[in-house]
Amino acid sequence: MTLFDLAQRLVGEIAERPGKADHPFIVWCHEATSMGAAADEVPWCSSFLNRLAWLLRLPRSRSAAARSWLDVGMAIELDDARPGNDVVVFKRGSDPKAGHVAIYAGLDDGRVRVIGANQSNAVTMATFPRESVLGVRRLTA
């Protein structure tokens, strides 16, 4: 099983809960990082990826920061990425520390398709501009 396979099973199944009730799966994902347990409103894209990587015994960042994944696994070019264990790190806004990380799912009319968490407050398939890619990493056991 790959990150892509596992994440695909969670699309449409995991989402933040409204109000004070936190989704236990999201809290469990946060526990896979140095941040520890946190509410489901706290950005969780990296926490989700850390938990899936832990389940599959793949390298992980252990950080809740999306850009921490730029130091995990092997750097590859976007054009060499494939669905499986390849992750994409994106810049987000103008903050040099802000980012997003998700699992590569393909290219779609010049946009990068990914499966990720905290995309519209859920695990979803989404696309991002190719220009926002900071790096692509291949995770191997």
How is the secondary structure organized here?
Layout: H1 3-10, H2 24-30, H3 45-55, E1 74-76, E2 86-91, E3 99-108, E4 111-119, E5 122-129, E6 133-138
Antiparallel strand pairs: 1-6, 2-3, 2-6, 3-4, 4-5
Structural class of the helices, strands and pairings?
alpha+beta
Strand order of the largest sheet: 1-6-2-3-4-5
Q: Give the low-confidence spans.
A: none
Q: What fraction of residues sit in β-strands? A: 25-35%
Which sheet architecture does the biggest sheet show? 6 strands, antiparallel
What is the averaged pLDDT score?
95
Q: Radius of gyration, rounded? A: 14 Å
Question: Top keywords for this entry?
Answer:
endopeptidase fold (from Nostoc punctiforme); 6 strands; alpha+beta; 3 helices; globular; 18% helix
What features would you describe in this structure?
This protein is of the alpha+beta class. The chain has a single domain, classed as Alpha-Beta Complex (endopeptidase fold (from Nostoc punctiforme)), CATH 3.90.1720. The protein contains three helices and six strands; from the N terminus they run αααββββββ. It has helices at residues 3-10, 24-30, 45-55; strands at 74-76, 86-91, 99-108, 111-119, 122-129, 133-138. Strands 1-6-2-3-4-5 form a six-stranded antiparallel sheet. β2 (86-91) and β3 form a beta hairpin. α2 crosses α3 (45-55). The protein is globular. The N and C termini lie close together (12 Å). The mean pLDDT is 95.
